[in-house]
């Protein structure tokens, strides 16, 4: 990795001068007009040594310039007052690194010091309820984070954690019974109709609401008829959900749900009791998870309601027991709406207190809301919370209208582009922030959009398709600034990737692939590769563009985006 090599050179020199420091951090240049990389550790060094930064900086830079292999790395290294070391890389060094990246499926990324086993909990759809736009966020963000972790070399276990045991089940069973539908006849159309009707009815009719809660409770206690109905409802609903995930290219290793956690509840209870953590409060059983240092109140976790029913937090604790037993993971990550952060804080603390798993292994990766132009949660034209199919259809409609009906695109290509539109729009945002769902903007081929990235890729694929560069070794040349800028950007890959990995933010990958595409467009608009007669130069450039496209493709795959054949 370029930065590390540069850091090592500076470190060697610092040591040679007799200064002991490991604060030799190199960063990307803040002034690309002046240099490629820079180091501002001189200030810190001067401070610990009680010396003048100018003196130390100049001494260091002179020493670097005197290195026998200076030219292998640098074109220029300068000290700039008051305390910066500015470095301009040699073409040699740039090209050597590009070759190493090209020869490695992981673009010369370093393996992690420790390979971790990471359980990822995302998706979280609720059986028998339609998926909404929030469920698209968790699916896409979670899948992308999983791919980033895998690319880094970690081992992931993705669990969909279905909401399959909640109150909606009682409501749907109530509705099915009322309509006299035989268990084996239940269809997805029935669920689509019954759930909203029952949910509305429960809001206005207290008796029905109680009955539905009673059914849910009986189901959880093992009632056999309800169990059979529930199983069928889960099957029908899962099939529908799987269809949506297939469309989104999102997949899971485990198709488990809240119901699978029930057998582990007695263990949780035992552990809580052993540590004397369970208290009764107004008939309910609770766990005090507050800390003296809390600035905001963290209310107790409710383990069991007064009617004996278990809650969302209970099944989450039980699920942790299950995961620890089966996988003993180093980490457990949850991708949900940010508004669930208090819930997870309570669960993580209770897990830690009970000795189920330490607080430090958990991460709640929250995401913001998808809003309409009015800044309020996104609604359909008729004012409902949109089903996912509605979003897919909208993107498709715009895409097809742009083609004026004279498109040669296959259904498969259309679906890939629809996916790119929605996913790039979503993942380019810092996941914690809300964003405005503006499908027209997301579908543009210019700007920071999925179609722009796809377009760039396909354009390059065309340029390089018929040039044979088998065994061509990249020369030491760089031909102009468009060329140099692109090469330098490709070398930044480990930095962008490291940020995405560390912060669990796919947006760093989206930003990076967009930057590559901007520079690639500038490159080919100013450098006409196809007509070139100088074959050495042509092969160098095709080599560069081949690597560029390989990287764009990999970045898109990390963003769960596939490339169509045409667009
Ligand atoms: N079903 C939940 C919802 O729709 C999300 C589940 C998230 N995962 C978890 N382990 N709590 O909000």
Relevant terms:
567 residues; alpha/beta; 4-stranded antiparallel sheet; 4-stranded parallel sheet; 21 helices; 10% strand; globular; binds arginine
Write the SSE topology.
Elements: H1 2-16, E1 26-28, E2 37-39, H2 42-49, H3 53-65, H4 70-73, E3 74-80, E4 84-89, H5 91-102, E5 117-121, H6 133-152, E6 155-159, H7 167-178, H8 188-204, H9 206-220, H10 224-248, H11 265-274, E7 278-281, E8 284-287, E9 301-304, H12 312-327, E10 331-337, H13 341-354, E11 362-367, E12 370-371, H14 388-402, H15 411-427, E13 435-436, H16 439-442, H17 450-464, H18 481-491, H19 493-503, H20 507-526, H21 535-558
Parallel strand pairs: 5-6, 5-10, 10-11, 12-13
Antiparallel strand pairs: 1-2, 2-4, 3-4, 7-8, 8-9
Helix pairs in contact: 2-3, 5-18, 7-8, 7-9, 8-9, 9-10, 12-13, 14-15, 17-20, 17-21, 18-20, 19-20, 20-21
Bound molecules: arginine.
């Amino acid at each position: 990795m370029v930065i590390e090599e540069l850091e090592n050179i500076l470190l060697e020199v610092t040591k040679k001068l007799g200064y002991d420091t490991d604060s030799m951090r190199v960063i990307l240049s803040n002034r690309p007009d002046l240099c490629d990389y820079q180091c501002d550790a001189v200030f810190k060094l001067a401070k610990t040594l009680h010396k003048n930064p100018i003196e130390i900086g100049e001494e260091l830079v002179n020493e670097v310039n005197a290195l026998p292999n200076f030219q292998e790395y640098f074109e220029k290294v300068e000290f700039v007052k008051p305390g910066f070391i500015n470095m301009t890389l040699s073409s040699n060094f740039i090209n050597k690194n590009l070759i190493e990246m090209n020869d490695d499926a992981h673009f010369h990324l370093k393996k992690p010091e420790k390979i971790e086993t990471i359980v990822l909990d995302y998706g979280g759809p609720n059986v028998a309820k339609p998926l909404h736009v929030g469920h698209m966020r968790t699916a896409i963000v979670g899948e992308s984070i999983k791919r980033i972790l895998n690319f880094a070399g970690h081992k992931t276990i993705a669990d969909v954690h279905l909401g399959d045991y909640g109150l909606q089940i009682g409501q749907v069973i109530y509705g099915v019974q009322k309509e006299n539908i035989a268990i084996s006849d239940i269809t997805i159309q029935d669920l689509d109709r019954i759930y909203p009707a029952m949910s509305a009815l429960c809001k206005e009719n207290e008796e029905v609401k109680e009955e539905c809660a009673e059914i849910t409770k009986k189901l959880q206690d093992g009632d056999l008829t309800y169990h059979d109905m529930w199983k069928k409802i889960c099957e029908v609903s899962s099939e529908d959900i799987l269809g949506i995930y297939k469309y989104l290219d999102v997949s899971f290793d485990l198709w488990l749900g809240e119901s699978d956690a029930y057998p582990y509840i007695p263990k949780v209870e035992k552990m809580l009791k052993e540590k004397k953590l369970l208290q009764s409060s107004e008939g309910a059983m609770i766990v005090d998870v507050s800390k003296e240092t809390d600035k905001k109140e963290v209310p107790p976790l409710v383990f069991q309601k007064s009617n004996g029913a278990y809650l969302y937090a209970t099944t989450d604790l039980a699920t942790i027991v299950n995961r620890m037993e089966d996988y003993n993971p180093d980490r457990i990550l949850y991708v949900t709406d940010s508004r669930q952060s208090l819930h997870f804080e309570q669960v993580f603390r209770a897990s830690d207190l009970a000795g189920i798993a330490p607080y430090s292994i958990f991460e709640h990766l929250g995401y913001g809301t998808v809003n309409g132009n009015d800044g309020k949660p996104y609604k359909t034209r008729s004012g409902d919370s949109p089903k996912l199919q509605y979003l897919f259809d909208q993107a498709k409609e715009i895409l097809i209208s742009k083609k004026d009906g004279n498109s040669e695109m296959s259904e498969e290509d259309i679906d890939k582009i629809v996916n790119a539109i929605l996913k790039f729009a979503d993942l380019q945002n810092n996941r914690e922030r809300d964003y405005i769902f503006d499908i027209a903007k997301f579908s543009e081929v210019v700007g920071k959009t999925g179609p722009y990235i796809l377009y760039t890729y396909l354009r390059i694929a065309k340029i390089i398709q018929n040039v044979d560069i088998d065994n061509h070794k990249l020369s030491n040349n760089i031909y102009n600034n468009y060329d140099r800028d692109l090469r330098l950007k490709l070398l930044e890959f480990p930095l962008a990737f490291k940020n995405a990995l560390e912060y669990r933010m796919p947006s760093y990958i989206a930003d990076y692939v967009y930057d590559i595409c901007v520079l690639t467009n500038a490159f080919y608009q100013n450098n006409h590769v196809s007509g070139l007669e100088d074959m050495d130069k042509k092969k160098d450039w095709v080599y560069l563009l081949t690597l560029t496209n390989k990287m764009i493709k990999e970045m898109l795959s990390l963003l769960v985006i596939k490339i169509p054949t045409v667009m």
